[in-house]
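WARN retry 2 of 3 for item q-0093 after timeout on previous attempt; input resubmitted unchanged.
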Amino acid sequence: MRKVLIALQLIVLFVFTAYSQITLPPDANKKASVSEDIGITTVKVNYSRPQVKGREGKIWGDLVHYGFADLHYGTSKAAPWRAGANENTTIEFSTEVLIEDKPLQAGKYGFFIAMGAEKATLVFSKFNTAWGSFYYDPKDDALRIDVPVQKLNESVERLKYEFGDQTENSAVLSLQWEKVKIPCKISVDLQKLQIESFRKEFNSGMFYRYWQNMQTAANYCLVNNINLEEGLSWADRSINTFFGESNFPTLSTYAGLLEKFNRKREADSIMQKALPMATPLQLLMYGSGLNKMKKHQEAFKIFKTNYDKNPKENYASLGMVMGYYFLENKKEAIKYAEKGKAMTTDPNWKSYFDSLINDMNAGKEVFK
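OK item q-0093 returned
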């Protein structure tokens, strides 16, 4: 039966290609694409979506063969499943990634699956323009990975790919069809890629025209405690070059990086100059950065300075909530959230403070 279906599909494809020059809707196997940004990396899947069409229990190991098989067409004598319908399913990565912790270079790959009842072998092929897997050749493999096959409680009528379990540097891509789910984790070395991206953008010449670019890159190094020497040079340029500017963000970032190199006296002197320049929002952001570096006591001092100076500012009230929260004093954090809610006349701020109060009372994490 499978041989007959394959032959009919090939005949239809040949006739359509040879004679049709008009635009028509797709056949029953709808075309689709799904994409997700993981950090600064874009992952995109292009595929066609076959239906179950009443064939529950007859998809896996029947319509979709297990393992590698001779499909009696093309050149492959041991072909995996095409992981969809019609032409190649493809998956594209804008940067290098890790698939289940195995490295894979940036590029566009043909995607195949050798199915099994309990385990599936995912195949990323450097050949990505085929129709189906009839010409699959293992010499084109860029990567093979084994993953577990999961069972679903409810049937998925049309095959789909979906991203889930997202973090700042990873996501799980899963194929779902009938009552089967095949997941794989895609992750990136976000910090490495971000620094490489900064360097590439710097070389364009646009980077140095704005102090904001230089300060942002330098502050990324500071907060993440990476690439500190180069980060210090970027911080210096954000102040002292033609397009540089001496302001609170540039000076505070520069001071923070100087402290990393045990130049605390210089850092303290610069901060004395910087603090009077800061707006309430800038002080909140600076304190938040200190919290990310686990400097919670130092952050609280900044939040307290902000609140003492600007007691009617929403950002200053929020800083006190954040400060006490990271010092694990939830009672005081809720108290200042209630003060902020009572003081502000902005309905959006009232709603935000109210959500913080409710979440903290419920034991939820409010600042990540």
